[in-house]
Amino acid sequence: MEKKALNPTDWLLGFGVNHGIEVKGGERVVYLSGQTATGADGAPQHPGDIVAQARLAWANIRDALALADMDPTNIVRMNMYTTDVPAFMEAAADLTAIWAGDGCQPVSTLLGVSALFHPDILLELEVTAVA
Questions:
Q1: What is the pLDDT of residues 80-131, one digit of tens each?
Q2: Which has the closest alpha carbon to 71: 36, 101, 107?
Q3: Number of domains in the chain
Q4: Quick one: which H or E segment has residue 54?
Q5: Taking a C-beta distance cutoff of 8 angstroms, is the pair 78, 104 a contact?
Q6: Residue 105 in contact with residue 76, Cβ under 8 Å?
């Protein structure tokens, strides 16, 4: 599989994401449901801490991808849902480091939403991976 970043401008690179990604020769696609800061029992973790929630949601993504023999470098799209866009933007450098540290530079959309599945959950990450 070959991935090619498509960036007519470079401002999104500061957030660890691309404008577009072209994939050639991919044979498998994994679509993950939104992952949140939940433990194995589904209980919300880290109320009020968007960075800690992002780390746990990311760990849940890594675990799910491993079941498909993939890792974060296979991710081509990540949609980020948050109930607190200002808090997300304030922590953007710390958040970006989470996925960039694993070699992930997807296309991405940040969406502000009024609520997620539980009032303590601030962030949900939804990814598509290709291998």
A1: 999 999 999 999 999 999 999 999 999 999 999 999 999 999 999 999 999 9
A2: 101
A3: 1
A4: helix 50-66
A5: yes
A6: no
Structure tokens at 91: 């922590």
Cβ(15)–Cβ(55) below 8 Å: no
Burial (CB count <10 Å: 0-12, 13-18, 19+), residue 66: exposed
Q: How many CA atoms lie within 13 A of 24 on its CB side?
A: 3
| 5-36 pLDDT tens trace | 888 888 888 888 888 888 888 899 999 999 99
Q: By residue range, what is the domain housing residue 45?
A: 2-130
* β-strand pairing of 107-112 with 75-82: parallel
Supply the pTM of this predicted model: 0.90
CATH of the domain at 45: 3.30.1330.40
User: What tokens does 117 get?
Assistant: 């599945």
CA dihedral defined by 100, 76, 118, 88, rounded to 10 degrees? 40
CA nearest to 100, candidates 3, 12, 17: 17
**Selection from 80, 66, 78 nearest residue 131 by Cα:** 66
